[in-house]
Design a protein that fits this description.
heterodimer; A: 127 residues; alpha+beta; 3-stranded antiparallel beta sheet; 5 helices; 3 strands; 43% helix; 20% strand; globular; B: 402 residues; alpha/beta; 7-stranded mixed beta sheet; 4-stranded antiparallel beta sheet; binds pyridoxal-5'-phosphate
């Protein structure tokens, strides 16, 4: 299978790889997927007092498209406020990366990871 | 010598046609284009003589008689003809077939089809190394058993089965024994007499011959195996496989068999050294690498490894100068990882992390050393990206702290 240039770009130069302090109250962590299924994404956001995402990091176990989808997600999340971040759709990720049908689940997983990270931050901050 | 990239480490998938094979074939595409079934002119005689010469070369590799060789379009057809052909011919005698879940689809699917048609199929599970034991086979035989089909060597992990012992049991119990030797023929010594093999499938393109041509060995005496043909037509190949013979392809298969037989012991020794160098080189520079397959009873060119915490398709993408294959689900449409690895008890997680390196006639020591460096770099980079690796390291640290 041939990969799109954007997948190759994110895969070869993944943005925002790393981890934030998961115990910090302004960090939200989302871990989705399962090793048995071949995909696990960890996506983290750091949110300031105004509800803006000031940093985002990821680590992904999965195929090239899964890595690219999570890398793109962190890029898009940075600078967004939480309300806009919540609206990010897997279809936007899939179309930006030109994912073929068998790889759509990678973009779904990225959306799930975003949602889980936001949820975690909200839980921590009583929202 | 400069390294030519990308490097081909996927010889179990297919091989390039050997120069010598190519040269043997070409006259039969152009000058000697006759139909081997044309009995009345020299064009036909020339083609027929070439086919009979090839038939002998194939038979010689297997310790068989030339007349026992039925020429086909490849191992998939040979497997289908052997399994369905026996089942349909001997249905009155019994309806039970024994095979193994880690066989190639070309064996599994015909058996499944027969299962739907009312046959009773026993699916043996291999051990952790991918082996079927003679005891397992013996324990599954009933008085309704008409066929045992167990592969000689597995395509994904390279594990070699105890074919001679299984053949002995089949012979003693009066059951026909078929072996899919697509990965084994030409790579390990095979003798249909000594190993009590009644039917054997093979394919040219795995042994430096052309694609789309193969053979089925069918025993003609002690005991005689009869097959219900699967391709009706002009009655070629003693009625077992109709269709005008692929003369250049068959000439290629014959020459490929000759070369494989002549060079087998040297090539096996050479490939074993290279494969073990690759394995040791990788293991020396990376942690959490496990071997899939039998440590010793394994094809010389096959090395199937799982790299924990890294997904196979991503790893292949990183190692873009090395052509390998993976048991990861991401490489298939099914989203399920390799059924062969699963049948051996490898966890789904490690099956997703598996890579098969298959070395061959063109593989050099420089290529192996290059691959060691590439694999190490790619796995290290992907582990930096892996939340599972991070988690494992944290656990490790906290265990060390207590
Ligand atoms: C063990 C085994 N059996 C059968 C086949 C099918 O061979 P062919 O491509 O000649 O149909 C293969 C090749 O993929 C194989 O490895």
């Amino acid at each position: 299978m041939a990969y799109s240039d954007k997948v190759m770009d994110h895969f070869s130069n993944p943005r925002n790889v790393g981890s934030l302090d998961k115990n910090s109250s302004n960090v939200g962590t989302g871990i989705v997927g399962a090793p048995e299924c071949g995909d696990v994404m960890k996506l983290q956001i750091e949110v300031d007092d105004d509800g803006q995402i000031v940093d985002a990091k990821f680590k992904t176990f999965g195929c090239g498209s899964a890595i690219a989808a999570s890398s793109l997600a962190t890029e898009w999340l940075k600078g967004k406020d939480l309300d806009h971040a919540t609206e990010l759709k897997n279809t936007e990720i899939a179309s930006e990366l030109s994912l073929p049908p068998v790889k759509i689940h990678c973009s779904v997983l990225a959306e799930d990871a975003i949602k889980a990270a936001i949820q975690d931050w909200k839980r921590k901050n009583g929202k | 010598m400069a390294l030519k990239l990308p490097i081909y480490f996927d010889h179990n998938a297919t091989t390039p046609v050997d120069r010598r094979v190519f040269e043997a074939m070409t006259p039969y595409l152009t000058e000697h284009f006759g139909n081997a079934a044309s009995r009345n002119h020299p064009f036909g005689w020339k083609a027929e003589a070439a086919v009979e010469h090839a038939r002998r070369q194939i038979a010689d590799l297997l310790g068989a008689m030339p007349k026992d060789i039925v020429l086909t379009s490849g191992a998939t057809e040979s497997d289908n003809l052997a399994i369905k052909g026996v089942a349909e011919m001997y249905r009155d005698k019994g309806n039970h077939i024994i095979t193994c879940v880690s066989e190639h689809k070309a064996v599994l699917d015909p058996c499944k089809r027969l299962g739907e048609a009312g046959f009773d199929v026993t699916w043996l599970t291999p051990d952790e190394f991918g082996r079927v034991t003679p005891e397992q086979v013996a324990g599954a035989i009933t008085d309704r058993t008409i066929l045992i089909s167990i592969m000689a060597a597995n395509n994904e992990v390279g594990t070699i089965n105890p074919i001679a012992a299984i053949g002995r049991i089949a012979r003693d119990r009066g059951v026909f024994f078929h072996t899919d030797a697509t990965q084994a023929a030409g790579k390990i010594p095979i003798n249909v007499e000594e190993m009590c093999i009644d039917l054997l499938s093979m394919s040219a393109h795995k042994i430096y011959g052309p694609k789309g041509v193969g053979a089925l060995y069918v025993r003609r005496r002690n005991p005689r195996v009869r097959l219900r043909c699967q391709m009706d037509g002009g009655g070629h190949e003693r009625g077992m496989r109709s269709g005008t013979l692929n003369v250049p392809g068959i000439v290629g298969l014959g020459e490929a068999c000759r070369i494989a037989g002549a060079e087998m012991s040297d090539e096996t020794a050479r490939l074993t050294v290279l494969r073990d160098r690759l394995h040791e080189g990788i293991s020396a520079s990376l942690e959490f690498v496990t071997l899939n397959g039998h440590p010793a009873e394994r094809l010389a060119g096959t090395l199937n490894l799982s790299f924990a915490y890294v997904e196979g398709e991503a790893l292949m993408m990183k190692m873009k100068d090395i052509a390998v294959s993976s048991g990861s689900a991401c490489t298939s449409a099914s989203l399920e990882p390799s059924y062969v690895l699963r049948s051996m008890g490898v966890s789904d997680e490690l099956a997703h992390s598996s890579i098969r390196f298959s070395l061959g006639r063109g593989t050099t020591i420089e290529e192996v050393d290059y691959a060691i460096a590439q694999v190490t770099k790619a796995v290290t980079e992907l582990r930096e990206l892996s939340p599972l690796y991070e988690l494992a390291m944290e656990k490790n640290d906290s265990a060390a702290a207590t």
